[in-house]
Design goal:
209 residues; four-stranded mixed beta sheet; alpha+beta; 9 helices
Length: 209
């Protein structure tokens, strides 16, 4: 995934630059400058990276994020384009594993935050790599779902997750399923089939971290 991480980093920076600092994103409460600050801090501040998954540190993370978002926007984008060599997240050994999905999802947060978006056309090799990420993420993302979820990516495969029980099928391209699993269900081109109550509940469930 290393080559995809590098390509998505550049694409994310380009999308943020084109949108400007105050454009909406899919991240609730975040404009583009906030999203840029988040990505930059994740690579440079281990305390922020930890705080993203530890609820007790969320207040600290929010304060640091607000301060960084006040940085001139061109500097934020320059920092995004050129990560520090010492970053534990962005070194060449871990870049693909830790950043390819992160940058892909946030690139789509910028693209889909505005009206008129359409899914990108990805190469079969890239879609296949994303399908691998979907399978790796599914058990964690759906760990609290009291039911069975069949993720169906036509042409790539199927994967079951959830705690078991009444089934729901989610059909879409690998990229759409990845975004679905990160909590962006209603902003994806996916088809959710099952009983209407369960299908609607899954579309609104809190998925991801």
């Amino acid at each position: 995934m290393n080559r995809y991480a590098g390509a998505e980093r550049r694409a994310l920076a380009d999308a943020l630059e084109a949108a400007g600092p105050d454009a909406p994103t899919l991240c609730e409460g975040w404009a583009t400058r906030d999203l840029a600050a988040h990505v930059v801090l994740r690579e440079r501040r281990p305390d922020v990276a930890v705080g993203l998954v530890v609820p007790a540190l969320r207040g600290h993370v929010d304060r640091v994020l607000r301060a960084r978002a006040a940085t001139p926007y061109p500097q934020l984008l320059a920092d995004l384009r050129q990560p520090p060599w010492w970053s534990p997240i962005s070194n060449p050994l871990l870049d693909g594993a830790l950043n390819a999905t992160e940058f892909f999802v946030h690139h789509e947060d910028v693209r889909r935050g505005r009206a008129g978006w359409a899914p990108r056309e990805l190469s079969p090799a890239y879609a296949s790599a994303i399908w691998g990420q979907v399978r790796a993420m599914a058990r964690w993302s759906l760990r609290r779902w009291r039911g069975a979820v069949l993720l169906d990516a036509p042409g790539y495969g199927q994967y079951r997750a959830g705690l078991g029980g009444e089934p729901v099928r989610v059909t879409g391209a690998p990229a759409e399923l990845l975004l679905f699993l990160t909590g962006r269900q209603r902003d994806t081109r996916t088809q959710v089939t099952g009983t209407p109550v369960l299908a609607d509940r899954l579309r609104g469930a809190r998925l991801g971290v």
